[in-house]
């Protein structure tokens, strides 16, 4: 059967107190609305329409990569009105439409799938996701008849004292038969406490027309909507727990899941050990058997197997097998570190390639350089890549030894097997196999101190 989905996202989200539209706030590195879209898509529902209004242009931009269609709701006259604005999207279609909210990122792929299957297999005209809440606060109440069938949804503000006591609530997420929904939308009115067109009223109308209405009870956690930054943090905790659990089931070892922050799209291999304070972001991939000691931020990077990283920042870069990074290293974008390499403490690498087996053990800056294999950088080497106007390139061959506290003034080339005396400032190419020393020769002035101070 044909299936499509509508996501309501036209509301303002005043309580977020933000310049960013509510649905574009991120949970574990992904916009809330994109979590909803991706879950819908993974249930093979391709046709997705988002109702936008407040902050429409930003929402369009923030969801552009998802290849969806939009309906515009100029004035926010209620959830029923929002769906009316998507009438063009629904017209001429027959099958099912699932409706979700853009600020409910915790709905899972399996619940989306169950909702649609239950709805279609039971041949319902409407199916509601509901939840049982100890304190249902402002949620709409699910009112059932003597046979236990859903009769209607009553909004909190329109409830009688008896209805307020009902603990089964409306999640605001549903599946409808498209034709039944379209026929009913035109019958909605705004004669209620809030003067809005309620989508929830569709249920009572369908029921009165003798149509079949179903409900599925799901955990409260999944349907919790985010209305404030406090609730955003709560959603983040729930999502983080799910992500960490998935990685542990896939074979990662997370010492303290509560203090490990992994974005939704990160991949982690088997037997990789993650200590507290790691922040793994973007499309990062950590392969098998790595050890991430405490306090790393790794963004959009690929870490090959058996790498150790400690107290370091790695951005948009690759780290080869068996390499160690840190403590206190800073690997900036577009760097490629080889296998069996060592990037030690207080080393910064920017837009550079470092060959296999090369050691940069401490206090060194390497920028815009191509470095070969099995080189050794002495403590305090600086690649002088910037002349005040341009960034210049340095090329270093294989098996190059650079003495401590040297400057390599770019552009410059150090050919294979070269050796740089400590304290040198290298400004010219060093030919293969040569020793370069570029510093003043040492002069000893005997008894200079005693003579000066007349101490003899
Ligand atoms: C709605 C339900 C309520 C349910 C609750 C669950 C109605 C009338 N009530 O209430 O039964 O318990 O959700 O969270 O549907 N939106 C628009 N255009 C509008 C109004 C809302 O796009 O004109 C969007 C909002 O951006 C939001 C969603 O619809 O994503 C829900 O709107 P909201 O105002 O939060 O509905 P509630 O009053 O909470
Ligand atoms: Ca709400």
TrEMBL record:
Required co-factors: Mg(2+)
Domain Mannose-1-phosphate guanyltransferase C-terminal: 319-404
Catalytic residues in the record: 362 (proton acceptor)
EC assignment: 2.7.7.23, 2.3.1.157
A Pfam family reported for this protein in Swiss-Prot or TrEMBL: GMPPB_C
UniProt-annotated location(s): Cytoplasm
Region of interest (Linker), residue spans: 230-250
Pathway entry: Nucleotide-sugar biosynthesis; UDP-N-acetyl-alpha-D-glucosamine biosynthesis; N-acetyl-alpha-D-glucosamine 1-phosphate from alpha-D-glucosamine 6-phosphate (route II): step 2/2; Nucleotide-sugar biosynthesis; UDP-N-acetyl-alpha-D-glucosamine biosynthesis; UDP-N-acetyl-alpha-D-glucosamine from N-acetyl-alpha-D-glucosamine 1-phosphate: step 1/1; Bacterial outer membrane biogenesis; LPS lipid A biosynthesis
Residue stretches making up the Nucleotidyl transferase domain: 5-215
Enzyme class: transferase
Residues binding Mg(2+): 103, 227
GO molecular function: glucosamine-1-phosphate N-acetyltransferase activity; UDP-N-acetylglucosamine diphosphorylase activity
Binding positions (UDP-N-acetyl-alpha-D-glucosamine): 8-11, 22, 73, 78-79, 140, 155, 170, 227, 332, 350, 365, 376
Span list, region N-acetyltransferase: 251-456
Keywords, in A-Z order: Acyltransferase, Cell shape, Cell wall biogenesis/degradation, Cytoplasm, Magnesium, Metal-binding, Multifunctional enzyme, Nucleotidyltransferase, Peptidoglycan synthesis, Repeat, Transferase
Catalytic activity: N-acetyl-alpha-D-glucosamine 1-phosphate + UTP + H(+) = UDP-N-acetyl-alpha-D-glucosamine + diphosphate; alpha-D-glucosamine 1-phosphate + acetyl-CoA = N-acetyl-alpha-D-glucosamine 1-phosphate + CoA + H(+)
Entry's family note: In the N-terminal section; belongs to the N-acetylglucosamine-1-phosphate uridyltransferase family.
Quaternary context: Homotrimer.
UniProt-listed HAMAP family: GlmU
Protein name, UniProt field: Bifunctional protein GlmU
